[in-house]
Amino acid sequence: MNTVFFVYYAMFFVFLTGCSDRSGKQGAQAAPILLKDVKMDNKTTELTDLQWKQNLTPTQYNILRKKGTERPYTGKYYLKPKKDGTYVCAGCGNIIFITGTQFNSHCGWPSFTAAELNSIVERKDTSFGMVRTEVLCARCGGHLGHVFDDGPGPTGLRYCINSAAMQFDEDEITEK
Ligand SMILES: [Zn+2]
User: Which residue from 22, 37, 96, 149 could staple onto 119, CB 3.0 to 4.6 Å apart?
Assistant: First the structure.
Protein backbone atom coordinates (compact mmCIF):
# COMPACT_ATOMS: atom_id res chain seq x y z
CA MET A 1 0.00 0.00 0.00
CA ASN A 2 2.73 2.37 0.97
CA THR A 3 4.74 1.50 -2.11
CA VAL A 4 1.80 2.13 -4.42
CA PHE A 5 1.19 5.47 -2.79
CA PHE A 6 4.85 6.35 -3.18
CA VAL A 7 4.83 5.47 -6.89
CA TYR A 8 1.78 7.67 -7.46
CA TYR A 9 3.38 10.43 -5.50
CA ALA A 10 6.62 10.15 -7.49
CA MET A 11 4.73 10.17 -10.80
CA PHE A 12 2.84 13.26 -9.74
CA PHE A 13 6.13 14.96 -8.98
CA VAL A 14 7.67 14.00 -12.32
CA PHE A 15 4.55 15.34 -14.05
CA LEU A 16 4.84 18.64 -12.20
CA THR A 17 8.53 19.06 -12.94
CA GLY A 18 7.95 18.23 -16.60
CA CYS A 19 5.27 20.89 -16.82
CA SER A 20 7.31 23.65 -15.28
CA ASP A 21 10.21 22.84 -17.60
CA ARG A 22 7.99 23.24 -20.63
CA SER A 23 6.58 26.51 -19.35
CA GLY A 24 9.76 28.30 -20.32
CA LYS A 25 12.02 27.81 -17.32
CA GLN A 26 14.82 26.76 -19.63
CA GLY A 27 14.33 29.84 -21.77
CA ALA A 28 15.06 32.06 -18.78
CA GLN A 29 18.41 30.35 -18.19
CA ALA A 30 21.15 32.86 -18.96
CA ALA A 31 23.95 32.04 -21.31
CA PRO A 32 27.24 32.47 -19.47
CA ILE A 33 28.92 35.76 -20.20
CA LEU A 34 32.68 36.22 -20.12
CA LEU A 35 32.74 39.38 -18.04
CA LYS A 36 36.30 40.21 -19.01
CA ASP A 37 35.17 40.47 -22.65
CA VAL A 38 32.28 42.83 -21.94
CA LYS A 39 32.85 46.46 -22.93
CA MET A 40 32.40 48.73 -19.92
CA ASP A 41 33.82 51.64 -17.99
CA ASN A 42 33.08 52.82 -14.48
CA LYS A 43 29.99 54.74 -15.59
CA THR A 44 28.47 52.55 -18.26
CA THR A 45 28.26 48.82 -18.73
CA GLU A 46 26.62 46.72 -21.39
CA LEU A 47 25.28 44.38 -18.72
CA THR A 48 21.79 44.66 -17.32
CA ASP A 49 21.15 44.29 -13.62
CA LEU A 50 19.73 40.82 -14.28
CA GLN A 51 22.85 39.78 -16.18
CA TRP A 52 25.03 40.93 -13.28
CA LYS A 53 22.87 38.91 -10.93
CA GLN A 54 23.22 35.84 -13.10
CA ASN A 55 26.99 36.16 -13.40
CA LEU A 56 27.91 36.86 -9.77
CA THR A 57 27.32 34.97 -6.54
CA PRO A 58 24.65 36.58 -4.30
CA THR A 59 27.38 37.95 -1.99
CA GLN A 60 29.42 39.36 -4.89
CA TYR A 61 26.29 40.92 -6.39
CA ASN A 62 25.29 42.51 -3.08
CA ILE A 63 28.72 44.08 -2.59
CA LEU A 64 29.76 44.99 -6.13
CA ARG A 65 26.40 46.12 -7.51
CA LYS A 66 24.45 47.09 -4.37
CA LYS A 67 27.32 48.58 -2.32
CA GLY A 68 27.00 46.01 0.43
CA THR A 69 29.67 45.20 3.00
CA GLU A 70 30.70 41.76 4.18
CA ARG A 71 30.89 41.22 7.94
CA PRO A 72 34.43 41.68 9.34
CA TYR A 73 36.60 38.57 9.67
CA THR A 74 34.30 36.59 7.39
CA GLY A 75 36.03 37.19 4.03
CA LYS A 76 38.68 35.00 2.43
CA TYR A 77 41.49 37.55 2.31
CA TYR A 78 41.44 39.65 5.48
CA LEU A 79 44.79 38.10 6.43
CA LYS A 80 47.62 38.72 4.00
CA PRO A 81 48.27 35.49 2.05
CA LYS A 82 51.57 33.69 2.63
CA LYS A 83 52.28 33.67 -1.10
CA ASP A 84 52.53 36.72 -3.35
CA GLY A 85 49.84 37.35 -5.87
CA THR A 86 47.39 39.66 -7.53
CA TYR A 87 43.83 40.61 -6.66
CA VAL A 88 41.44 41.12 -9.54
CA CYS A 89 37.93 42.56 -9.44
CA ALA A 90 35.41 39.72 -9.04
CA GLY A 91 33.10 41.59 -11.39
CA CYS A 92 35.34 42.07 -14.41
CA GLY A 93 38.85 40.70 -13.86
CA ASN A 94 40.52 44.13 -13.64
CA ILE A 95 43.82 43.94 -11.66
CA ILE A 96 43.20 46.17 -8.63
CA PHE A 97 45.62 45.27 -5.80
CA ILE A 98 48.77 43.22 -5.22
CA THR A 99 50.01 41.50 -2.06
CA GLY A 100 53.04 43.85 -2.09
CA THR A 101 50.85 46.63 -0.74
CA GLN A 102 48.66 44.46 1.53
CA PHE A 103 49.04 44.62 5.30
CA ASN A 104 47.25 43.08 8.25
CA SER A 105 45.27 45.97 9.70
CA HIS A 106 43.25 43.83 12.15
CA CYS A 107 40.05 45.52 11.03
CA GLY A 108 38.63 42.31 9.57
CA TRP A 109 38.87 43.28 5.91
CA PRO A 110 41.76 43.05 3.44
CA SER A 111 43.77 46.28 3.70
CA PHE A 112 46.17 47.86 1.24
CA THR A 113 48.30 51.00 1.24
CA ALA A 114 47.86 51.58 -2.49
CA ALA A 115 45.86 50.40 -5.50
CA GLU A 116 47.27 49.48 -8.90
CA LEU A 117 47.66 52.47 -11.23
CA ASN A 118 44.38 53.61 -12.83
CA SER A 119 42.60 50.51 -11.56
CA ILE A 120 40.16 52.21 -9.23
CA VAL A 121 38.13 55.40 -8.95
CA GLU A 122 37.24 57.17 -5.71
CA ARG A 123 33.98 58.89 -4.89
CA LYS A 124 32.64 60.81 -1.91
CA ASP A 125 30.15 58.66 0.01
CA THR A 126 27.81 60.26 2.53
CA SER A 127 25.66 57.19 3.27
CA PHE A 128 24.90 56.10 6.86
CA GLY A 129 25.53 59.64 8.15
CA MET A 130 29.28 59.38 7.55
CA VAL A 131 31.58 61.09 5.09
CA ARG A 132 33.77 58.43 3.54
CA THR A 133 35.61 57.86 0.30
CA GLU A 134 34.18 55.00 -1.69
CA VAL A 135 36.48 52.86 -3.84
CA LEU A 136 35.09 51.53 -7.12
CA CYS A 137 36.56 49.41 -9.89
CA ALA A 138 37.63 51.72 -12.73
CA ARG A 139 36.49 49.19 -15.30
CA CYS A 140 33.08 47.87 -14.22
CA GLY A 141 32.19 50.49 -11.61
CA GLY A 142 31.71 47.75 -9.00
CA HIS A 143 31.79 48.84 -5.36
CA LEU A 144 34.96 47.49 -3.71
CA GLY A 145 35.13 49.24 -0.33
CA HIS A 146 36.42 52.50 1.15
CA VAL A 147 39.74 54.26 1.64
CA PHE A 148 40.77 55.89 4.94
CA ASP A 149 43.76 58.08 5.81
CA ASP A 150 44.91 56.05 8.83
CA GLY A 151 47.17 53.64 6.94
CA PRO A 152 50.87 52.97 7.46
CA GLY A 153 53.87 53.66 5.27
CA PRO A 154 54.53 56.36 2.71
CA THR A 155 50.94 56.74 1.50
CA GLY A 156 49.28 56.84 4.93
CA LEU A 157 46.25 55.27 3.29
CA ARG A 158 44.23 52.19 4.16
CA TYR A 159 42.20 50.76 1.34
CA CYS A 160 39.62 48.68 3.18
CA ILE A 161 38.25 46.25 0.60
CA ASN A 162 35.66 43.48 0.70
CA SER A 163 37.15 40.04 0.10
CA ALA A 164 34.13 38.97 -1.92
CA ALA A 165 34.67 41.83 -4.37
CA MET A 166 38.01 40.31 -5.35
CA GLN A 167 39.56 37.13 -6.67
CA PHE A 168 43.11 36.25 -5.64
CA ASP A 169 45.52 34.88 -8.22
CA GLU A 170 48.71 33.47 -6.78
CA ASP A 171 51.87 34.43 -8.67
CA GLU A 172 53.29 31.66 -10.77
CA ILE A 173 56.86 30.83 -9.85
CA THR A 174 58.87 30.43 -13.02
CA GLU A 175 62.02 28.33 -12.76
CA LYS A 176 65.20 29.91 -14.00
ZN1 LIG B 1 35.51 45.48 -12.04
Answer: 96
The answer to whether residue 29 is domain-embedded is: no
In a domain, 151, yes or no: yes
Distance 44 CA to ligand 1 centre (A): 12
Number of compact structural domains in the chain: 1
Report how far Cα 63 is from the mean position of its chain's Cα atoms: 6
- Structural domain includes residue 15: no
Report if residue 17 sits inside a domain: no
Active-site residue 160, yes or no? yes
Expressed in angstroms and rounded, the spacing between residue 171 Cα and the centre of ligand 1 is: 20
Its domain, for residue 154, covers 35-170
Q: What is the mean pLDDT of each run of 10 residues along the chain (176 residues)?
A: 52 45 44 61 74 94 97 97 97 95 96 96 95 95 96 94 97 75
Distance 111 CA to ligand 1 centre (A): 18
